[in-house]
């Protein structure tokens, strides 16, 4: 991978965690409690926030690559 700045690495990790980690956590909570509303209400928010964060982070990584090539 490109030599990214620490902020970009952290942003990528957070975006992927929100996109994948939150649904897993809420699936576990829903399984233990038996109330599947926790999962159903968390999915739209986590997918929206995760995808937006991922799109912004990838865009920033592309800009860093273009700047390094100059």
Q: pLDDT under 50 segments (min length 5)?
A: none
Coarse structural class:
mainly alpha
| Estimated helix fraction | over 70%
* SSE pattern, N- to C-terminal: HH
Through-space gap between termini = 18 Å
Arithmetic mean pLDDT:
91
Number of helices: 2
How many structural domains in the coordinates?
Answer: 1
Major sheet size, sense and barrel closure: none
Overall 3D form: elongated
SSE layout:
Elements: H1 6-33, H2 37-69
Compact description:
The protein has helices at 6-33, 37-69. The protein has 70 residues and is mainly alpha-helical.
Question: What does it look like?
Answer:
The mean pLDDT is 91. The chain is mainly alpha-helical and 70 residues long. Helices cover 87% and strands 0% of the residues. The chain has one domain. It has helices at residues 6-33, 37-69. The longest helix is centred in the last third of the chain and has 33 residues, at 37-69.
Key attributes of the depicted protein:
70 residues, 87% helix, mainly alpha
């Amino acid at each position: 991978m490109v030599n990214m700045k620490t902020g970009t690495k952290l942003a990528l990790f957070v975006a992927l965690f929100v996109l994948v980690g939150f649904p897993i956590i809420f699936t576990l909570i829903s399984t233990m409690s038996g109330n599947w509303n926790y999962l159903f209400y968390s999915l739209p928010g986590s997918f929206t926030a995760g995808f937006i964060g991922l799109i912004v982070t990838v865009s920033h990584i592309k800009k860093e690559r273009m700047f390094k090539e100059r």
